[in-house]
Structure formats: structure tokens, C-alpha cells
Design brief:
Blueprint (H helix, E strand, L loop, with lengths): L1 E6 L3 H10 L2 H4 L1 E7 L2 H11 L3 E5 L7 H11 L7 E6 L4 H10 L3 E4 L4 H48 L11 H8 L7 E10 L8 H18 L5 E7 L2 E8 L4 H21 L4 E6 L3 E2 L4 H13 L9 E3 L6 H8 L2 H12 L3 H15 L6 H19 L11 H10 L3 H41 L6 H8 L3 H12 L3 H19 L4 H7 L5 H12 L3 H8 L1
Length: about 550
């Protein structure tokens, strides 16, 4: 609704204007009527009307002065439409008002059609102005979003470790490339990590929740720093805070208060967990990578800390040398051997033993992470022995459990279970691959049993060495190759004896035997009946 203010020193004129028009129909409302110029000016400043209908002559401040004062003081983006009312004797004042930018002037007595026409004209102009303002705001918003994206790309480069050289650029070079200024000398990296406590491949939940968390962080933290930026990276909201003074204590205090905001999300999604990793506050941008590393380490050190909301890195040394104490060289060899042999039970047994040993070191998150990463590396390495098998996993797929699950038990149980599934799937695939040549061989025998068929001819057909094929056929079917061929020939001979009147010699030839005596001997051995006896019995 457009807001309308009526100003006239004659109360009856104000009432007439108010009654002449169906304001609701025009999408307008009269927010007040006043009888002097000073009161009109004060009300304009207080209620910000869109349209002011004012008399030229008023006590305190005349209409001309009111127009000059308002149009000279109100922001350029906000348009106030003035309509001047005058008598014939005041026409020269009306002309002056038009020069000042009023929309129109009306002569007394006011006529309904004239006033409606002026108001419709204002509506048209207001619509154009509103559209222009909307376009301008949209352009400004897009420009701000683009500038923010450029600024955020600075943080993306650092987090993805693509261009560490940008830390050596001076402040002006950083501003020219990324449009971000860092007025302060102190930098803090913060990671807000969302644990779904279930491993998902799609990003639907993250896409819904992380932007909400990012907005909460902005509202809570922005005022405590000179420059800040944040990005959504994998399962995290990653933030850079720059300040003139070392405000780490303020950051920590506000981050704890953020827990209250995030608890509203947890009320809707109780199985989710949020942990905040706070990196070291460093002096100078060239040290920022140290803050990134310590924030990541804080998240990795989440085990054995009673599900704390806010995590800070605990200094530890020599973690790399501790990993072999859990994953020894002999254990690594046994793991690789069990993968190569697809000995799933042995592989899982070793993993469970390592999990048990590692459970005594939960306070050492870097060690836990190092062992997990080493086990993933070994499993990926072992899968290379499967040659061109399609049943393989990429490292990032097996690291997903560590990223999306919070607790130690859940993380390692997920790894063990997924390794088991991959190995069992590979084992099943291998069985199917071994069964396929047997199926092809059986199909070929069934289509060619009436010909001079041999082990060599069948193995050549399916592309195997005859000796290997013979062994594989025996293993898969429980009978040797020629036993199966004879079985198929006699089965077809039995059908022909029962279903046709062909003589026995003709039937023998049709199932692949040129020697009638040999055929009869084989037939009796398989059925305990001669061909003639079989025909008489079953025909």
C-alpha cells in the first residue's frame, strides 16, 4: 500500500480529499491529515509517506518551503511524490512548485476526476521507480555476491592447498586479485564440522544444514573481526577471521555461544553432531597455513574427549613414528597377502586386533587418524592385485567414514564392514567370472553334442587352455568333460526313442555315435536298459 499524507490548513478541504477517493481500490492508505507545514514536515520524517497532497498556503511552513526541504533532504533512492493544491490567485506559486519537481498541481475546488487522474499518473511512475530500484538492488546484490565469491576463492585456494604461494603476496596484490583487505595482523582459522553419524554418498543433508550453520556463524562472529570469509568445504564450514588485535578469547566465547544456536538444529536432527575446531591464532598471513593445520588436527583429535563441542589442538610429537607400532611391517604383509588371496576372515581378524590395540590411544587423535589412513592405503594397495576387476574402491570413498562419523567405534566398525563388503563382492564376482566359461561350454555342448566334439574343440571355443579348462570344469560341475558330453547325448537319445519312430541306428547317429554297438553299450550303462527296452517301456 502506498502511504498518503494530506496537509491543508482548512480542515474541511482535508476531509473532502479524504472522502473523494476510494483509497483501498487504488492500493493506497491515508496515514494522516495535518493543518500546518511544520507538522507536515515532522510527520513526513517520521512516517515516510509516498505521496504528499499539500496546500500552497499553510501556517508555520508553506507548501513551497515544505517541498524544497523534503526533496532536498530525503535520500535520492526514495521518491516522495508531491501534489500541490492552490487557488487561482496562487497560480504563480504553483508554477514555482512544478519547477521544484512536484508531480502536479490542482486548483481549488478539488474535483474527483482530476485528483484520480493525478493519483493514477503517480501510480505509473511509482511502478517504474520501484522496478528501477529493484533492478538496482538486484544488481548491487549480484555484485556483492560476486565480490564475496572472489574473496572466498582466496580461502578455497588455501584450504585445497592449491596455491600456497599466495601467502607470500603483499596486501595490495591480494586485494587486487581477491578484493579482500586484511587490516589486522592476527588470523584465526576455524572449522565447523558436521557429523551425520551415518555415511551418505549424496550431499543432500549437507546441502541443507551447512548453509544454515554458515549463516549462524556470520551473525554471531562477523562483528568481532575486521575481515572475515567463509566457505562450505566437504562436510565443513571453514572460516578465516582477521582482526587488529588478538581476539582469540572473544572468538572462543562467541563460538561457545554458537552452541546454543546450533542446538536448535540438533533438536530437529538429534543424531547429528557438530564440532568446532579452532586453529592457532597466528600473527601475519604468511603463518596462516599453521592455523589451518591446527584446526584440522583439532577435529581429528575428537576421540576420547567426551564429545566436546569446541576442540583445540593438543600438541603432540612423533605421531608418524607411532603408527608402525600399531600397523607393523609384518601386519602390513599379512594384510596385503589376505587381500591378494581374498581371505576375508584373516583380513578382518587383523583389522579387529588393530582396532583393539588402538582403543588404548584415543587421546592421541593424530595417531588414530594416522592408523586409519595407513589401513586405507594398504587396502587400496592390496586391491591393485585384483588387476582389472571392477570391484575396487577409491581412497576418498574409504575416508568418508572418518569424515562423517563422530565416534571411534563407529568409524572403525564402518571401515571394517566396508572392507568386508568389498572383498565379498569381489569374491562373488570372481565366482561369477569363473562360472561364465562353464556356462558357455555347456551351451556349446548342448548345441553340438551330435558332432565330433572334444575337450580341445570346446576349450578352444571358449578361449581356455584344455588342461586348465578340464580342471575348472571338474571343479564347477563335479564331473569330467566327457562324462557331461555322454550325459547330454544319452538324454537326447532317450527323448528321440520315446517321441519318434526312428530306428536305433538313426538315433545313435543323431546324438553323435557312428558305432551302434558302442552307443548301445553306453546307453545301457547309463539307464540299465538297452535302447529297444527303453522304447518299449516308456513309449
Amino acid at each position: 500500500m502506498l502511504k498518503v499524507l494530506i496537509a491543508d490548513d482548512e480542515i474541511k478541504v482535508s476531509e473532502l480529499i479524504q472522502c473523494l477517493i476510494d483509497w483501498d481500490k487504488l492500493g493506497m492508505e491515508v496515514i494522516g491529515t495535518v493543518n500546518d507545514g511544520v507538522e507536515a514536515y515532522e510527520l513526513i520524517l517520521e512516517k515516510h509517506p509516498d505521496i504528499v497532497i499539500t496546500d500552497i498556503r499553510m501556517p508555520g511552513m508553506d507548501g513551497i518551503e515544505l517541498v524544497e526541504k523534503v526533496l532536498g533532504n530525503v535520500e535520492s533512492d526514495r521518491k516522495v511524490f508531491f501534489v500541490i493544491i492552490s487557488g487561482y490567485s496562487q497560480f504563480e506559486y504553483a508554477q514555482q512548485a512544478v519547477k521544484l519537481g512536484v508531480e502536479d498541481y490542482l486548483l481549488k475546488p478539488i474535483k474527483k476526476k482530476e485528483l484520480e487522474a493525478v493519483l493514477h499518473k503517480i501510480l505509473g511512475k511509482y511502478s517504474e521507480t520501484a522496478n528501477a530500484l529493484e533492478e538496482k538492488e538486484d544488481l548491487q546484490n549480484r555484485l556483492q555476491r560476486t565480490q564475496q565469491k572472489i574473496k572466498n576463492s582466496f580461502l578455497s585456494e588455501l584450504v585445497d592447498n592449491h596455491r600456497q604461494a599466495i601467502l607470500k603476496l603483499d596486501r595490495e596484490e591480494i586485494y587486487q586479485e581477491f578484493e579482500c583487505r586484511f587490516p589486522g595482523e592476527y588470523f584465526t582459522h576455524v572449522v565447523v564440522h558436521l557429523f551425520l553419524n551415518t555415511v551418505v554418498e549424496n550431499e543432500e543433508d549437507y546441502g541443507f544444514l551447512l548453509p544454515k550453520i554458515q549463516k549462524m556463524i556470520k551473525e554471531r562472529m562477523e562483528k568481532y573481526c575486521s575481515e572475515w570469509m567463509s566457505i562450505i568445504h566437504d562436510e565443513e564450514v571453514v572460516c578465516l577471521f582477521n582482526s587488529v588485535e588478538d581476539k582469540r578469547e572473544d572468538f572462543i566465547r562467541q563460538l561457545y555461544r554458537l552452541k546454543v544456536d546450533i542446538s536448535n538444529i540438533k533438536a530437529l536432527f538429534p543424531r547429528y553432531k557438530v564440532a568446532i575446531g579452532v586453529g592457532r591464532t597466528v600473527e601475519g598471513l604468511e603463518q596462516y597455513q599453521d592455523s589451518i593445520g591446527s584446526a584440522k588436527a583439532a577435529i581429528r583429535n575428537r576421540f576420547g574427549r567426551k564429545e566436546e563441542f569446541l576442540l583445540e589442538e593438543e600438541e603432540r610429537a612423533g605421531v608418524e613414528s607411532e603408527v608402525p607400532a600399531i600397523v607393523s611391517a609384518s601386519a602390513k604383509r599379512d594384510l596385503l597377502k589376505s587381500i591378494e588371496l581374498v581371505d576375508t576372515e584373516s583380513f578382518l581378524r587383523i583389522l579387529r586386533e588393530m582396532k583393539r590395540d588402538l582403543s588404548a590411544h584415543l587421546q592421541n587423535g593424530e595417531l588414530v587418524y594416522g592408523v586409519y589412513r595407513e589401513l586405507v592405503t594398504i587396502f587400496i594397495m592390496g586391491m591393485n592385485s585384483w588387476y582389472d576387476s571392477e570391484v575396487k574402491a577409491a581412497p576418498w570413498e574409504l575416508m568418508r567414514g572418518y569424515q562423517q562419523l563422530y565416534g571411534f567405534e563407529e568409524v572403525f566398525d564402518w571401515l571394517i564392514d566396508n572392507c568386508r563388503k568389498i572383498m565379498e563382492r569381489y569374491e562373488e564376482t570372481q565366482k561369477n567370472q569363473e562360472a561364465r566359461p562353464i556356462r558357455l561350454a555347456k551351451q556349446y555342448i548342448n548345441e553340438n553334442y551330435n558332432k565330433a566334439i572334444s575337450l580341445e574343440s570346446v576349450s578352444n571355443h571358449i578361449g581356455f587352455n584344455p588342461a586348465y579348462f578340464s580342471s575348472m570344469f571338474k571343479k564347477a560341475t563335479g564331473q569330467n568333460f566327457m562324462e557331461y558330453v555322454i550325459e547330454i547325448r544319452i538324454l537326447n537319445a532317450r527323448n528321440l526313442l520315446v517321441q519318434t519312430n526312428q530306428d536305433v541306428a538313426e538315433i545313435a547317429a543323431k546324438v553323435g555315435y557312428t558305432d551302434l554297438k558302442y552307443f548301445s553299450r553306453i546307453f545301457k550303462k547309463m539307464t540299465n536298459l538297452t535302447p529297444s527296452e527303453y522304447r518299449r517301456l516308456y513309449s
